[in-house]
Amino acid sequence: MLAKRPPLGWNSWNTFGPYINEKVVMETADAMVERGLRDAGYEYVVIDDCWSLRQRGEDGRIVADPEKFPHGMKYVADYVHSKGLKFGMYSCAGTMTCAGYPGSFDNEYLDAKTFAEFGVDFLKYDNCYVPDHVHSPHLYRRMGLALKQSGREILFSLCNWGINDVHSWARSVGGHMYRSTGDICDNFESFKNIAISQLDKLGTSAVGCFNDPDMLICGMGGKGNVAAGGCTPEEYRMHFALWCMMGVPLMIGCDIRNCDEATLALLKDPALLAIDQDEEARPPVWLQPTVKDDIINLFKHLSDNRYVLGIFNFRDHDATNYTYLEDMGIPQTAGYTVKLRDLETGEEAAPLDRMIRTTIKSHTCKLFDIQIVEK
Fold first, then answer.
1. Cα–Cα distance between 231 and 229 in angstroms, integer?
2. Which residues of 265-297 are buried (b: 16+ CB within 10 A; e: fewer)?
3. In terms of domains, do 236 and 148 share one?
4. DSSP bridge partners of 300
5. Which residue, of 276, 302, 325, is where some domain finishes?
6. 183 assigned to active site
7. How far apart are CA 178 and CA 162, in angstroms?
8. What's the domain range around 208?
9. pLDDT tens per residue across all 375 residues of the chain
10. Alpha carbon 359 to chain centroid distance?
C-alpha cells in the first residue's frame, strides 16, 4: 500500500523552478544519501514543471528536453533508484502545464505508460489550462485510472490548489495526497496563512491519502524560485513543526546540496519526524477554535497511548498561552492529570490548576510530549 504515512521527499520547484536538469537531480540524490536525509526517511526525488520539450514527439509522447536531460529520463530514474531512492515527475490535467509545456489532457493513458517506462514512482499532477467545459475532478479520475493501468506502482499527488472541494473526492479518484492550498512562498506570512486556512480541514487526512498544504521552505533563506524575503531560523522551525503536527507530506524545497547544518538538523529532527510519521496517522485536534487564529493549540493522538501538544505563536510579540486540560478531553472529574516534557529542551513540567501555562516568544512554537497520569 502506498502512502501508509505522509510521503517524504524533495521537489525541485521551490528552489530551481524552470532551471532544472539531470545534474541537479542526480547531485540532489547523492546529497539525500550523503547528508543523511534518506536514512531519516525522505525517499522521493521529484522533478517539477519545465522538464520536457514544448511539443510532443511524432509518436504523441512527451519528450524530455535533451539539453536539460541529455541521457533521458530513464537514465535519471535509474540513477535515483541506484541510491535507494524513488523518482518523481510532473504533469498537468490541462492542455498545458502551468509553465506552458504539454499537459496530459486526453493523453492520460499514454502519458501514464510513458512515466511507467521511465521508472517513475511519484506523479505530481497540476491543474492549469483545464478546458472550461470539463469538470476538473473527472480529469483526476482519468489519470488515477491510467496510473493503475500503467503496470507500475506510482504515487498520485493531486495538485489542484484546494478547489472543487478536493478533500471530498481526492481519495476516491486514487489520490495519495492532494494539494489543499495555493503555492507557498518563502516567508512567514505565506506559511502562516496556509496553516490557518487548513485548521478546519485537519480531519480530512488519513492513511492512504493525505492533505498537502504545499512544500517546505525550510532553509531557503530568501533564495530560489519562490523567494519572498525568507524566514528566521526560528520561523523555519515553527513551519516544520507545524507541518509535522498536521501530519502532512514533507517535501523539501531548499537546495539540500548546499543547505547549512542547522537546516539539516531540523529536517532530520527525530522527535518532529516521529510526530509526522506516527503509524496511526491521526490528524490533530484544533483546541479552542473560537479563539483568534494568532495563537494555535494543536493536540494530537499518537500510537501507544502517547500524545503531543503543539502551541504556535503567530503574534508579532511574546505571549502567554493557556491550554486547558478540559479542552484536551480531561475534565475536572476524570481523576487524571498530565505530565509534560518539552520536546526541544527535554525539561519536564506539570500543569497549573487544570491548565498548561506557557510563555512563547513571537514567531516561535513549543511542543510537549504529554503523559496522562492518575492524580
1. 7
2. ebbbbeebbbbbbbeebbbbbbbeeeeeeebbb
3. yes
4. 308
5. 276
6. yes
7. 8
8. 8-276
9. 899 999 999 999 999 999 999 999 999 999 999 999 999 999 999 999 999 999 999 999 999 999 999 999 999 999 999 999 999 999 999 999 999 999 999 999 999 999 999 999 999 999 999 999 898 899 999 999 999 999 999 999 999 999 999 999 999 999 999 999 999 999 999 999 999 999 888 888 899 999 999 999 999 999 999 999 999 999 999 999 999 999 999 999 999 999 999 999 999 999 999 999 999 999 999 998 766 669 999 999 999 999 999 999 999 999 999 999 999 999 989 999 999 999 999 999 888 878 999 999 999 999 999 999 998
10. 29
Question: What span, in angstroms and rounded, lies between the C-alpha atoms of 209 and 203?
Answer: 12
Report the greatest alpha carbon distance in the chain.
74
> Do 259 and 321 sit in the same domain of this protein?
no
Structure-block grid coordinates of residue 204: 480530512
pTM score, two decimals?
A: 0.97
Q: Any catalytic annotation for residue 111?
A: no
Clarify whether residues 326 and 194 are in a common domain.
no
Which amino acid appears at position 41 of this protein? G
Catalytic residue among 30, 65, 78, 183, which?
Answer: 183
Catalytic residue among 49, 111, 126, 214: 126
The CB density around residue 4, as the number of other CB atoms within 10 Å, is 12
Closest C-alpha to 216, from 200, 197, 236, 230: 236
Total domain count, the chain:
2
